[in-house]
Amino acid sequence: MLKNDPHIGSPRNRVDGPSKVTGTAKYAAEFEAPDLAYGYVVSSSVARGRISRIDAGDAEAVPGVLKVFTHENRPRTAWFSHNYQDEVAPPGKPFRPLYDNEIQYSGQPVALVVADDFETARYAASLVRVDYEAEPHETDLRVVRAKAYVPPKKRSGITPPPKPRGDAMKAYSEAPVRIWGEYAIATEHHNPMEPHATTVVWQGDGKITVHDKIQGALNTQGYVANVFGLSKDDVRVISPFIGGAFGSGLRPQYQLFLAVMAALDLERSVRVELTRDQMFTFVHRPETINTVGLGANPDGTLLALKHEAVAVTSRFEDYQEVVVNWSSLLYHADNVELTYKIAQVDTYTPGDMRAPGAPLGTFAVESAMDELAYATGIDPVQLRLRNYTERDENENKAYTSKELRACYQVGAERFGWSKRSAEPRSMREGRELIGWGMATGVWEAQMNKTSARAVLTIDGKLEVATATADIGTGTYTILTQIGADALGLPMENVTALLADSALPKSPVEGGSWTAASAGTAVDAACRIVREQLLAYAQKMDGSPLADAMIDQVTFTNGSMVLTADPSRSVTLVAAMKAGGVDRIEAQETVSPSKINQQSYSAYTHSAVFAEVRVDEELGVVRVTRIVNAVAAGRILNPKTARSQILGGVVWGISMALHEETFTDHNLGRFMNHNFAEYHVPVNADIHDIDVIFVDEHDDKASPIGVKGLGEIGIVGTAAAVANAIYHATGKRIRDLPITIDKILAAQE
Ligand code: MOS
Q1: Is 412 in the pocket of ligand 1 (CB under 6 A)?
Q2: Mean pLDDT value of segment 725-729
Q3: Per-residue buried b or exposed e for 6-18, using 16+ beta carbons within 10 Å of the residue's own CB
Q4: Cα 665 to chain center, whole Å?
Q5: % residues pLDDT > 70 (the chain)
Q6: How far is the CA of 582 from the centre of ligand 1 (A)?
Q7: CA-CA distance, 380 to 607, in Å (whole number)?
Q8: Distance between CA atoms of 97 and 76, rounded to whole angstroms?
Q9: Which atom of ligand 1 is closest in space to residue 248's alpha carbon?
Q10: Strand arrangement, sheet containing 129-134
Q11: pLDDT at position 386 over 90
Q12: 631-688, pLDDT tens digit by residue?
């Protein structure tokens, strides 16, 4: 990349900001179509069993109702369950909406009422009568825990725990200092601002355009083509804006199936939008119980590290995430045993939610490390440095880069950690106990195969394009910056196109890999344009750049300039004229370096410091200060990057104190499916959050030096808050969220 890059690394405003705040950005449920019909979903009220009778007569009789779809009259769709397997599906048999009379979970869609308007569809849906033959169900992880199993088939992209090293149980039992605890995290549900929705625009002749809430247009396109037996040419997916997804939009959800089914059957445009309570009828973060055992010397040196996690999955898919591996990525011990198991319950399959698995596993190990710090009398930061890993000992590889030491140091300094008084309950102000706690965060730095296109036109405008999404992370903005710097153009001259199945191929936006992947692809496509421009410039008679190599030229202010002698330059327009072209188009596909992947492990890291104030009589916790120091390689845009960490920290505070989906195990149903009872933080819950990016040079994680940072902000935050609560109160609560009742009931 160029030396004089004025946009990359600078805090730039979001290029999609104006369209978002003025309301011109269109979300899935906002696309219009002539003659649009509206679908409303009827959901199952039992968790397991069969539909014995379904009577849609009253609903169909309502004026304006076009059709009520049920398993009895649905159009034919693919027979084999593998046709329903989307790009990121875990192993198993994906749920097939309206497939037959079997009920697999409470809230499962059992009918779709389609009408001329939304209100009619909703009213008619209330008239659909469904009788069930219920069968016994189980939704309690603590009941099925004994039946947990190691997933027989690995989910693609997930690294299973490493083989045991040494003998962890023996070393633990012989260790002078021992910590043993069970750390649980409640079920959480996705509640992005925009509920899931799909608008299918009927184009005639069996062709459809689909606007779907999805993190990858190609995933929706592939799913629809496979399930409905369509050619991909007949399915165009355009979803330019996503009102938050955080993993809930990685897999196509059932409203997509229902909307496409209805549109194809009625030969008419159809929209299906889920309600806020229906957002609780699909993907959620799996309830997880961790068991951690630490054996150490009195000086804090770890001898044994045991971490087991058991998480829920559905009966039909083996959902998996990385929960336990983080422990031994962070800390060295000669004796390590990590286990990850899943147990089936009668709910929909859990799914990815921001940094899937990592905040759960780090809550456990970072709480246990905090307990070890108190047991040994060693400062929590010092304890972590004492057991620091220089290599990825799970895979026996070097890191592409790891500036975690700097995160601890810079974070502690900014926070004022050295002024901490070590004893629990030793800091107070008025009726509030003050607690300072810290924890470590770690997340994968991945890059994935991605294609991008760059088109430069003679008016000096550049368009860069790839099919991936911008789920709010700032992808439009960073790709615009990369394109602008690659060709020395102002950002206003550059347009980024995303989230369209007709664009060059890209994986879903997820896993924090998009900046590294799409960024590298756009950079590579622009490089071809640069080379072409130079070739044209060299065709000019007496070209000032006649003997220049591409790396000797700087692209700036709409010109190519010889870096060593800026008096020698050619404008881009002049070069294109010399080449006799009015546009240059290039497409490039980039893949991660196989050699680097084989030899190195790539992770981002963070150190999170938290201050809480706990009202001693009421048990009310305020998280008054967070400092999150992040090492994530090159930061393309400190402004959008900071927003990502802020969002992650807020979510981490939420995980620590607020979020919890309650299940009525008798009904097998999530009960608090609304914002009155499912708590997320509001402004009053959030105080000071300080984000620091430490310098981290990385030339191996991705060619552009980027490691990604959409997810690292949540990791470690809940643990830091829990540790601060212990420091304030002397009460160790190993069960998230840490609600007032738990604080009041806990013993010191
Ligand atoms: Mo992320 S949980 O891969 O959207």
Answers
A1: no
A2: 98
A3: ebbeeebebbbee
A4: 29
A5: 99
A6: 40
A7: 11
A8: 12
A9: 4
A10: 102-103, 49-55, 129-134
A11: yes
A12: 999 999 999 999 999 999 999 999 999 999 999 999 999 999 999 999 999 999 999 9
- Kindly list the catalytic residues: 711
Q: Please give the biggest Cα pair distance in the chain.
A: 86
Complete domains list, the chain, with CATH? 17-23+447-591 (3.30.365.10), 31-136+193-245+249-279 (3.90.1170.50), 146-188+284-446+600-745 (3.30.365.10)
The string of pLDDT tens digits covering residues 508-565 is 999 999 999 999 999 999 999 999 999 999 999 999 999 999 999 999 999 999 999 9
Ligand 1 site-directed mutation target among 189, 248, 319, 354, most atoms within 8 Å of CB: 354
Nearest atom of ligand 1 to the alpha carbon of 246 = 4
246 lines ligand 1 (CB under 6 A): yes
The number of the ligand 1 atom at minimal distance from the alpha carbon of 352 is 2
Q: 1: pLDDT confidence band, cut at 50, 70 and 90? A: very low
Q: Tell me the CA–centroid distance for residue 326 and ligand 1, in Å.
A: 17
CA of 354 to the centre of ligand 1 (A): 5
Residue to substitute in 158, 250, 514 for testing ligand 1 pocket (most ligand atoms within 8 angstroms of CB): 250
Which atom from ligand 1 is nearest to the alpha carbon of 215?
4
| pLDDT of 5 over the 80 cut | no
**Residue whose CA is closest, atom 4 of ligand 1?**
247
> pLDDT tens for residues 457-513?
999 999 999 999 999 999 999 999 999 999 999 999 999 999 999 999 999 999 999
Ligand 1 centre distance from Cα of residue 572 (Å): 39
Q: Cβ(636)–Cβ(519) under 8 Å? A: yes
How many angstroms does the Cα of residue 155 sit away from the middle of ligand 1? 15
Ligand 1 center to residue 186 CA distance, Å?
Answer: 19
Nearest alpha-carbon partner for 114 in 52, 200, 175, 189: 200
Token pair listed for 242: 């996503």
Q: Determine the Cα–Cα distance for residues 272 and 389; give it in Å rounded to an integer.
A: 50
The pLDDT of 133-147, averaged and rounded, is 98
CB 357 less than 6 A from any atom of ligand 1: no
Chain CA centroid to CA 638, Å = 19
| Confidence tier at 6 by pLDDT (50, 70, 90) | confident
Best mutation site among 246, 251, 446 for ligand 1 pocket (most ligand atoms within 8 Å of CB): 246
Write the DSSP assignment of 411-467 as a string of letters: HHHHHTGGG---STT--EETTEEEEEEEEEEEEE-----EEEEEEEETTS-EEEE-S
* Centroid of ligand 1 to alpha carbon of 338 (angstroms): 24
Q: Which amino acid is at 111?
A: A
Q: How many helices (H) and strands (E) does the chain have?
A: 18, 34
Residue 4 binned pLDDT confidence (cut-offs 50, 70, 90) = low
List C-alpha distances in Å: 404 to 44, 216, 220, 407, 608.
48, 32, 38, 5, 11
Atom of ligand 1 at shortest distance to CA of 250?
4
Q: Is the CB of 66 under 6 A from ligand 1?
A: no
Task: Please report the pLDDT score of residue 602 as a whole number.
Answer: 98
Sorting pLDDT into bands at 50, 70 and 90, what band is 589? very high
Nearest CA to 360 out of 461, 260, 428, 287 is that of 287
Does the C-beta of 250 come closer than 6 Å to ligand 1? yes
Q: Is residue 353 in contact with ligand 1, taking CB distance under 6 Å? A: yes
pTM: 0.97
Confidence at residue 235, expressed as pLDDT on a 0 to 100 scale: 98
CA distance 388 to 332: 6
| Matching residue, tokens 């000019």 | 540
The per-residue pLDDT of the chain, averaged, comes to 97
SS3 302: strand
Q: Quick one: pLDDT band at residue 703, thresholds 50, 70, 90?
A: very high
CB atoms within 10 A of CB 581: 16
